[in-house]
Design a protein that fits this description.
Structural class: alpha/beta
Helix content: 25-40%
Number of helices: 3
CATH topology: Metallo-beta-lactamase, Chain A
Number of strands: 5
Order of helices and strands: EEHEHEHE
Shape: globular
Length: 100
């Protein structure tokens, strides 16, 4: 979705799929919201692979930590993503906003 001059990709409740590369190639993505809970959606490993396919400017992890079966460490994901891809990850708390 494009908002003003920014492209935002919200993966929702999905798993990794190779067409994410097409989305990243179509037009640069400013921010990608990627699930990383692992039970019902992508886990941290697949979310990192999605980052490699999408090549967004910024990543926000979503859909984790709300109940036991999807507990994940978003800071570990952020560190690993930054080290692997050089792409920044912003870990947000409920009620926070993000200015691009």
């Amino acid at each position: 979705m494009d908002v003003e001059d920014k492209r935002i990709y919200h993966a929702g409740d999905t798993g990794l799929f190779y067409d994410m590369k097409l989305l990243g190639d179509e037009k640069p993505i400013d921010v990608a919201l990627l699930p990383m809970g692992d039970n019902y959606t992508m886990g941290p490993d697949d979310a990192l692979r999605a980052v490699l396919l999408l090549t967004p400017r910024l990543v926000v992890p979503i859909h984790y930590g709300t109940f036991d079966v999807i507990q994940q460490d978003p800071r570990a994901f952020a560190d690993r993503t930054k080290q692997t891809t050089g792409i920044d990850v912003v870990v947000m708390r409920p009620g926070e906003s993000l200015d691009l």
